[in-house]
Specification:
Length: 152
């Protein structure tokens, strides 16, 4: 019996979120605005419960053209698949990306794994001619910016 192979088509879909204002996604050009923007899309009820990882996709004017929750993790770790970050960037024609994850522990200090991940994302983005603007670590009342701290 011959099996038929069917190739799946991957499509980008846009879903407007009525809770979000377009002004919250314009000209995101510094870490303070990135922090604010990530908090607009984050499930804040889980910020102190478990780690999650999100990506913002931006155009050349630094306007957000899309965002995606990449992964939810456990109490102190989240597994991030580079392919999910980059495939979404390519699908929405992003020229820039910003990423963020949270530390439920309340510590702003990046781990060695955080630094390694940031470097991997930066290198993958360079191959695709996409600029990594920042990697933000969120806690309930503050944030850490890899860019502001000169970490890449």
């Amino acid at each position: 019996m011959k099996k038929n192979f069917i190739a799946n088509e991957l499509k980008l879909s846009y879903h407007k979120n009525a809770k979000l204002s377009i002004d919250d996604f314009k000209c995101i050009n510094n870490s303070k605005l990135m922090d604010r923007t990530f908090r607009r899309i984050w499930d804040l009820e889980e910020l102190e419960i478990r780690e999650s990882f999100y990506a913002l996709y931006l155009n050349t004017k630094l306007d957000v053209i899309g965002y995606r929750k990449i992964a939810d993790g456990g109490l102190d770790t989240v597994m991030v698949d580079m392919r999910l970050i980059m495939s979404s960037a390519l699908l929405c024609n992003a020229t820039k990306i910003a990423v963020a994850h949270n530390h439920p522990s309340g510590s702003l200090k990046p781990s060695c794994a955080d630094r390694t991940l940031t470097n991997r994302i930066n290198e993958a983005a360079k191959v695709l001619d996409i600029q990594l603007l920042d990697h933000i670590i969120l806690i309930s009342e503050n944030y850490y910016s890899f860019r502001d701290e000169g970490e890449f």
